[in-house]
Amino acid sequence: MNYDEALALIHGRPRLKRESTLRRMRRFLALLGNPQEHGQFVHVTGTNGKGSVVAMLRDLLVGQGLTVGTFTSPYIVKFNERIAVNGKMISDDEVVSLATKVEPIIKQMDAAGEGPTEFEVVTAMMFCYFAAHPVDFVICEVGIGGTYDSTNVLAHPVASAIVTVAYDHMKLLGNSIEAIATQKAGIIKPHCPVVVGRVPDEACTVIRQRANQQQAPLAVYDEDFSVTDHHPTTTGERLTYHDKTWSALTVTTALKGQYQVINTAVALRLFEVCCKQAQITPQPGEIAHALANVRWPGRLERVVDEPLVLLDGAHNPVAIAGLGDTLKQRYRGREINVIMAVLADKDAATMVRQLSQIKNVRVTLTGFEQPPRPLVGEEFAQELGVEYVADWRNAFMKVVQSAAADDVILFAGSLYFVAAVRPFFEK
Question: At residue 427, does pLDDT exceed 80?
Fold first, then answer.
């Protein structure tokens, strides 16, 4: 098997099989020798923000001299990013080796009529990798939801986090905040510390109930830890973090956006749990240095300076609302051209309206090659009264031709879109 054949094996699997059980995933891992039972995992879920929390926690732990694995999705540039160590993605040869390992098990399960999905295959590969290449911690990002996500085979994580709870993936998770919170709270395990970001009251009630049932210590934003004195800087977001350990820890995270403030607080709280587990006492200067240098592609990422071109993977109304607040705060008085590609199964109308209502924002809807699911198109754009240009490159060139030097051009609407656009600017 070569690298292209390995990717074909992975991407050739079914994307989704609706099933309210982890039976198939547990069977898959049992046939692989239960690799998920090895290692210290931090399990992170949330409608938005979980990727940023993973990146910050990773760099905080690496700053203490620890070796840290991560499992994230989707990838921005290359598949290998999904499994990484200290921020460095695994090699092509390692992807081939992992695919070779799982292939006979996939065939065996296919023959029995219980073949795994694409995400189950990738998750199994991740567990196999870290079982064979031990690290100090693995930060594992949930795919969708929590309870029936293939990562939820972890029995004893070091800590769990629920960063945000909002409407998204309702067909899978439910049509109420309580239902969605129930799915996300499914990652809470007995006696495992849980960190919760800013979530709606009805979600917090559900999470508390689950934590009480599991006798899991619970830390909730604005109750057990908090942030004061936040203001944006040219390099990121400056804030002062408070909890029982740090009465006033002032740091600047390199990740821009108001929404990154709470993400930073969640990462710092998780960091404390991990440091206690590793018997490490971090110094404030080490923490500040790690956060000042954290990088996470596609999150208000600057790729061109003049005119300013940004990439942001905001892909649901809550994320777009947070993005809009940041645009109003950081780029007041500048013309902002938003080029959006939005999957049709998202609440695209709300997202477009949220941005269009900002007085200095102009929205253009567009498309990109090989989206994972259908995109909203020209008819939809006409209904909302925004421009539509079928190819994002043409949309970009059209905007650039009329843009002033201090204008802002922002690509948003989908992480898949950001992944398609980003290589153009890297070149």
Answer: no
Q: Which residues contact 288 (CB under 8 A, 6 or more apart)?
A: 250, 251, 252
**Pair of tokens at residue 73:** 């999705």
How many CA within 13 A on the CB side of residue 38? 17
Cite the DSSP H helix spans in 87-165: 92-111, 118-132
d(C-alpha 337, C-alpha 160), whole Å: 38
Residue-by-residue DSSP string for 196-227:
E-S--HHHHHHHHHHHHHTT--EEEBTTTBEE
pLDDT of residue 175: 78
Q: Tell me the torsion sign for CA atoms 212, 218, 221, 225.
A: positive
What do you get for the CA distance between the two ends of the chain, in Å? 30
* Cβ 367 vs Cβ 395: under 8 Å: no
Residue percentage of the chain with pLDDT more than 90: 84
* Tens-place pLDDT, residues 179-228: 999 999 999 999 999 999 999 999 999 999 999 999 999 999 999 999 99
Q: In the predicted model, what is the mean pLDDT of residues 5-30? A: 91
Which of 355, 392, 338 lies closest to 370, judged by CA? 392
Residue 167 CB-density burial (10 A; 0-12 exposed, 13-18 middle, 19+ buried): middle
- Residue 169 above 70 pLDDT? no
Q: Write out the H or E segment, with its range, that includes residue 259.
A: helix 259-278
pTM of the model: 0.92
CA-closest candidate to residue 98, choices 86, 87, 111, 89: 89
Taking Cα atoms as reference points, which of 50, 48, 130, 35 lies closest to residue 84? 130
Q: Say if CB 297 and CB 272 are below 8 A apart.
A: no
pLDDT in tens, 300-322: 899 998 899 999 989 889 999 99
What's the token pair of residue 57?
A: 């926690």
- How many whole angstroms separate alpha carbon 74 and alpha carbon 143? 9
Q: Do the beta carbons of residue 351 and residue 376 sit within 8 Å? A: no
Is residue 87 within 8 A of residue 13, CB to CB? The reply is no
